[in-house]
Structure to design on (604 residues):
């Protein structure tokens, strides 16, 4: 396989399930307990977390964090978007061999539909009493990029775009241009969206590589829609 | 890399509604910063650069929020300067904002419809429809580097051959949401802000809009191009900048490298200069680390306040006007250098030939951005 722009890993968190590279990695079900990872597609991968109960976003994010046996105390003070994006990045990057990637060569380019409105509403509720600086700092959508950057010491290109639905075409164009012009060698790109009780994260790890599937808008759309 | 020309621009601020008005006001050392005693904004009087309560921006203000009307006024003036068509598939509109219509949370009842109305897409789509842009507008919301990132994104999409013309417009409006947040951080200065000064204690907020039209072709009498740009992250803290300035310094060097310009060739720096203790200290270190201690630096926060998602645009436009006029504008509020790196903060208006200029910005989430503008 030739070396060109590839999607070398993906992670989806939606519907109380975490899927890496097309396979469930966590599946939680209160009736049956934690299940063994199971294959959910023809591609290699695992479903990490699945939780079939009707718990809220907050409980699911915490449950996923615990099931993945992560240890990062800052997680608890993050807002929902940052928790979601941070978890997706943990799963996306687990077991990826990135030691040789320079901090400045890892770009992060994210999108969502609701910016930081989920936290904006919570922050504004505090204003009439004592405005909360701990919430205010999360009233910007790109804070999740900051949290992922701090965790992994990534210092490369940043961008946060807002769109009604995942714009795979723009992602292919913009991230493609970052790699082509050598502004980055690797990029974490995708979607991290939360509003009230609905959420979805889909992250792609992209680089020039001989492994993975072609970095195209169509391939990203297919993975985003869970059709692979 | 192919050239990207800045072919038209506009600033709508409390100082004026065209770029020319704004630049004239700045050369006269004017400032939009005033003390505002408005209980809807803050419990106590606060300094800020704000539009008057009854300012109108378009002939059709009633159909739009203030945020949208500001964008429309700014884009309208910029589009009148050049022959580009919003209906062309090769033309893109980029909107830059941090908080858009968030002020509606303060005046309206919270419903799903309101949440939809607050979304940046609602505003961007209304603005795009006003002018007839056929492509869905691209929205950049990346804290205080939004304006610079929007210009960089536009330039990159032109260079990648995706678009021929990109209209980049940014705006933010100051309401209680934003004011209370910065106050909760103890970040608002009790006096008009003092960038890089030894007595600086925090920021002054401001509102406004800026628009630049970027093009692959030199379709106006412009003599300025976007020569290089880069962004990056401190990976240090979500609300505090790097202690060393190394990360912003790296981004500056990337932008210079892309522009093919060495540090000694940079004639002037338009800094972010928010006048918080930590931002200005970090930025000064980054400027020195990048080998730019020789270049005159200014901050326009004393003129405009911190206009958030518009700041990168407004300050870039003033930088380009300075290049055209051969003038370095001073830094209102600055008296004595109060940062550890010995940078060259402009205190008075100076005449100087400016060929290559640097614009920087940094924001929450640890993000940094830099652009080099060069004369053709």
């Amino acid at each position: 396989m030739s070396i060109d722009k590839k999607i070398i890993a993906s992670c989806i968190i939606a519907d109380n399930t975490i899927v890496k590279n097309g396979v469930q990695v966590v599946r939680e079900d209160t009736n049956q307990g934690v299940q063994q990872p199971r294959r959910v597609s023809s591609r290699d991968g695992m479903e990490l977390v699945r939780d079939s109960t009707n718990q809220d976003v907050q409980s699911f994010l915490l449950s996923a964090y615990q099931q993945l046996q992560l240890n990062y105390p800052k997680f608890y003070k993050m807002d929902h978007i940052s928790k979601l994006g941070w978890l997706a990045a943990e799963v996306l990057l687990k077991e990826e061999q990135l030691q040789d990637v320079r901090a400045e060569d890892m770009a992060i380019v994210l999108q969502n539909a609701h910016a930081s409105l989920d936290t904006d509403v919570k922050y504004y509720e505090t204003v009439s009493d004592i405005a909360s600086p701990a919430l205010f700092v999360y009233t910007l959508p790109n804070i999740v990029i900051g949290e992922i950057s701090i965790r992994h010491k990534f210092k490369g290109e940043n961008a946060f775009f807002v769109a009604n639905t995942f714009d795979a075409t723009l992602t292919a164009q913009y991230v493609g241009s970052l790699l082509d012009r050598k502004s980055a060698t690797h990029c974490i790109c995708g979607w991290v969206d939360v509003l009230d009780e609905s959420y979805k994260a889909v992250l792609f790890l992209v680089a020039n590589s001989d492994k993975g599937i072609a970095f195209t808008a169509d391939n990203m759309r297919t993975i985003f829609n869970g059709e692979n | 890399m192919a050239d990207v020309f800045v072919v038209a621009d506009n600033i709508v601020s409390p100082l004026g509604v065209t770029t020319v008005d704004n630049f004239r006001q700045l050369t006269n050392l004017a400032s939009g910063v005033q003390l505002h005693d408005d209980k809807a904004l803050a419990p106590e009087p606060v300094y800020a650069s704000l539009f008057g309560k009854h300012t109108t921006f378009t002939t059709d203000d009633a159909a739009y929020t203030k945020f949208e009307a500001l964008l429309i006024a700014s884009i309208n003036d910029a589009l009148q300067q050049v022959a580009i068509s919003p209906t062309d598939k090769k033309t893109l509109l980029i909107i830059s904002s941090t908080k858009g219509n968030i002020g509606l949370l303060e005046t309206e009842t919270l419903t799903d419809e309101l949440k939809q109305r607050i979304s940046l897409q609602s505003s961007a789509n209304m603005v795009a429809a006003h002018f007839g842009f056929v492509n869905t507008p691209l929205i950049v919301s990346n804290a205080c580097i939004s304006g610079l990132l929007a210009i960089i994104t536009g330039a990159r999409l032109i260079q990648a051959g995706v678009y021929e013309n990109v209209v980049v417009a940014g705006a933010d409006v100051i309401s209680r949401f934003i004011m209370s947040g910065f106050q909760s951080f103890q970040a608002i200065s009790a006096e008009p802000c003092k960038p890089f000064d030894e007595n600086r204690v925090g920021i002054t907020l401001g509102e406004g809009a800026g628009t630049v039209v970027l093009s692959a072709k030199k379709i106006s009498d412009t003599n300025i191009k976007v020569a290089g740009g880069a962004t990056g992250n401190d990976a240090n803290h979500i609300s505090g900048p790097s202690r060393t300035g190394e990360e912003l310094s790296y981004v500056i060097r990337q932008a210079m490298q892309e522009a093919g310009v060495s540090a000694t060739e940079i004639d002037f720096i338009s800094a972010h200069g928010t006048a918080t203790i930590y931002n200005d200290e970090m930025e000064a270190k980054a400027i020195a680390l990048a080998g730019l201690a020789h270049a005159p630096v200014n901050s326009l926060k004393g003129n405009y306040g911190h206009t958030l998602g518009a700041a990168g645009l407004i300050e870039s436009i003033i930088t380009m006007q300075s290049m055209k006029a051969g003038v370095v504008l001073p830094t209102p509020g600055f008296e004595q250098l109060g940062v550890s790196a010995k940078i060259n903060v402009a205190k008075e208006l100076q005449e100087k030939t400016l060929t290559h200029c640097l614009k920087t910005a940094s924001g929450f989430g640890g993000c940094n951005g830099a652009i080099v503008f060069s004369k053709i």
